[in-house]
């Protein structure tokens, strides 16, 4: 079964960078409501650095590790270490596979989620990017188990991430700057969950061709 | 001697805490600031933290990191993860009190575990009572 090739990983990061760049203003607006108001700008800078750091003709694992490293170095906010960990952990799993297939991508996404959870010490319901990433990882695995091809599984992950992001609106934040706001954080879409949904959408669009 | 690195969102904050900690470390403790984002604005730079760790390193004595909030903590944890096992530690401590405790202990010639413990014990130092 076909998995995430090096060129596809390259296109994924470029596509994610383009989507983040297009929505940078909206992400920053969301972050101004409950965060420190720089998420879109920071992540745009980080993904631009990730694109600039993409190695030529490298397998998917190497591509994601290089992109993750650049994101941590250039983002400047909490999203740098979190997105960097997400991509590096996924990259390491793929890097350990000879010929990564769709199941290996599922394992990579699972490792990415575990890394983000561990570093951010966040669980589902805390109103963070985990609320988009966790349902995406579960939906990918479920779609694959149900016999979906790779693009279909990636689409299921993207849709679950978008729904997960929307579900953060009524939540009260328990992590980050928003957590200091208490009940005033309720009623706002979490910017990290929103950007995570964009990154998963980029994966689906890349694999759908 | 164990080195100390102050990871903060602001260059001024990191330098100020380092200045106070050095004084409490009787001028012997090595305390390096790593403040601000990659463009010199508010934020955190892993590159600046890695440089500060290198500057604070003295042989195999190890380096203790202290961080202010949010991304500083996450970035410091990534530096710990990337370092050789047990050579760089992050203290779960209030920034100023932790830095002063760590610098005092480091200046006394203690090992990394003792400097780390001193920084974390600063949590229990009340300002009044």
UniProtKB/TrEMBL annotation, chain A:
Keyword Endoplasmic reticulum: no
Coiled-coil segments on the chain, per record: none
SMART domains, per database record: Dak2
Residues covered by the DhaL domain: 7-205
GO MF terms held by the record: transferase activity
Keyword Transmembrane helix part of the UniProt annotation: no
Protein name: Dihydroxyacetone kinase-like protein
UniProtKB/TrEMBL annotation, chain B:
InterPro entries registered for this protein in UniProt: DhaM, DhaM_N, PTS_EIIA_man-typ, PTS_EIIA_man-typ_sf
Enzyme's top EC category: transferase
Reactions it catalyzes: dihydroxyacetone + phosphoenolpyruvate = dihydroxyacetone phosphate + pyruvate
Domain of life of the native organism: Bacteria
UniProt keywords, alphabetically: Kinase, Transferase
Ranges where the PTS EIIA type-4 domain occurs: 1-126
EC number(s) recorded for this UniProt protein: 2.7.1.121
Self-association state and partner proteins as the record states: Homodimer. The dihydroxyacetone kinase complex is composed of a homodimer of DhaM, a homodimer of DhaK and the subunit DhaL.
Function, in words: Component of the dihydroxyacetone kinase complex, which is responsible for the phosphoenolpyruvate (PEP)-dependent phosphorylation of dihydroxyacetone. DhaM serves as the phosphoryl donor. Is phosphorylated by phosphoenolpyruvate in an EI- and HPr-dependent reaction, and a phosphorelay system on histidine residues finally leads to phosphoryl transfer to DhaL and dihydroxyacetone.
Protein name in the entry: phosphoenolpyruvate--glycerone phosphotransferase
